[in-house]
DNA sequence: TCGAAGGTTGACGCTGGGTCAAGGTCCAGC
DNA sequence: GCTGGACCTTGACCCAGCGTCAACCTTCGA
């Protein structure tokens, strides 16, 4: 006959757990000796090991209680289910490991692969961290609100980025952030931007698919840009003014 | 800008969880709009996904909070730790699957392999379920109290079981359980048992190793047998009497 | 204009025990 | 025979990480 501590130690659970199982009726209370101590027999060991094994496998205690009195066929069936659940858990843990890997370094956790690739291209191009982060945040919001549209649009952006002239322009625009608002280069940049806008307008006039996208997005784009207007530098604000002059003209 | 539900849905957590993170300070409370609704930006999505990823990997929320403001080097180190923990969890789940398999059919979960094998041999020999269970319970208690001794003793038992004459005797003894106490076959059985005891006494007189084991165990054996005396049948009680007559003689 | 859907705070509930507190018992060594 | 330390008893509160009401306010599409 065993005391509660010997039982718990042999099976590998805590004394508190055993008492908890008694309280909930999962493990029957054993006889007491003359001093009121619980005295356990071999069946208690068998029961407790079964309980422990199933509990460790994630089975809720009430479910274990059901199974302790189930016939062998039902029991085997339930164990098979528990085993399948364990297998699923293992698969999930594996997936979590891969996602965890994306935590350190990379936007792959927050964005579809295409967009994360695009951001990576920007970095490799030499775009500032600030610039990349503004892009990233914009794409995140866009993806959260219109995932399909975001994917269509990113395809266009990556096409653009294949053009060396556009890359040149993008870099300049990125650097202009830190210029002084009276920097004369801003005028030249505004010229380039206006020309690009005009070309794009002609292109979208022809290609209806792109037109649709532009229309769908334009409202949100406004909203997205507005989100970050507070982060605009004096140079960019000035650039906006210059641009508006040229476009409205 | 997102409402709490859109945020939660996009990231894949519940609204309640987001609010919980706000309460504990894990995720900063965002600005409210004019009606008091929370409005989330892209950074909230990034933060929440990081939180979710680490939380799913089993990281306690306070620990996550520490890591959210940690520098990249410390963060990467911590993520490596979390990943290692995940790996250990996967290994443990695998082990639990194997132990779970022993739950259905078999005593391997409760007893060392040698003893489980011995019980299996008894079953194959044709010993009654009751008999096997009495043996099992005895071995469990013995193993719980004196694991080393149990292993030494089981070796002897398995040797005995290799002897066809002993197997024959064991089976008869097992079946005698259900005989009537005045069954004349009990006398013959008592003769055989007495003879066996005498032989064993001579053997243990020679082999000191076995002697030691017998001595060590004898007290506990008494206790163990006493445990199950209540389960003795009338025939077995009678057999005990007959045996005592012959041995004391 | 109205009802459904979504937002707000606040409070209690749940699992599976951990961790005191305040005693009563057992046993080994002196 | 006594004492100290390990063990037993019940009872109570505490924890994470949310789930789940309740009671009320706001927004939005038909």
UniProtKB/TrEMBL annotation, chains A, B:
Residues 76-103 form a coiled coil. InterPro entries: DNA-bd_dom_put_sf, MerR-type_HTH_dom, MerR_fam. PROSITE patterns: HTH_MERR_2. Pfam families: MerR_1. Keywords: Coiled coil, DNA-binding. Residues 1-70 form the HTH merR-type domain. It comes from the Bacteria. GO terms for molecular function: DNA binding; DNA-binding transcription factor activity. This is DNA-binding transcriptional regulator, MerR family. It comes from Asanoa hainanensis.
């Amino acid at each position: 006959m065993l005391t509660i501590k010997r039982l718990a130690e042999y099976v590998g659970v805590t004394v508190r757990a055993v008492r908890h199982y008694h309280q909930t009726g999962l493990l029957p209370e054993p006889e007491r000796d003359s001093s009121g101590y619980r005295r356990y027999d071999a069946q208690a060991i068998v029961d407790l090991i079964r309980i422990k094994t199933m509990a460790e496998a994630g089975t809720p205690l009430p479910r274990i209680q059901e199974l302790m009195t189930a016939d062998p066929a039902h029991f085997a069936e339930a164990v098979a289910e528990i085993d399948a659940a364990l297998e699923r858990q293992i698969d999930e843990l594996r997936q979590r490991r891969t996602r965890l890997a994306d935590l350190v370094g990379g936007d792959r956790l927050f964005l579809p692969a295409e967009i994360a690739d695009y951001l990576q291209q920007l970095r490799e191009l030499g775009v500032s961290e600030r610039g990349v982060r503004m892009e990233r945040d914009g794409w995140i919001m866009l993806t959260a609100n219109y995932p399909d549209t975001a994917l269509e649009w990113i395809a266009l952006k990556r096409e653009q980025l294949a053009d060396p002239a556009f890359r040149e322009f993008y870099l300049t625009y990125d650097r202009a952030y830190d210029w002084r608002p009276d920097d004369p280069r801003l005028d030249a940049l505004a010229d380039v931007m206006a020309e690009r806008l005009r070309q794009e307008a002609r292109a979208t006039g022809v290609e209806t698919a792109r037109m649709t996208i532009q229309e769908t997005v334009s409202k949100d784009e406004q909203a997205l840009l507005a989100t970050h207007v507070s982060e605009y530098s004096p140079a960019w604000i000035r650039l906006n003014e210059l641009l508006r002059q040229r476009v409205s003209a």
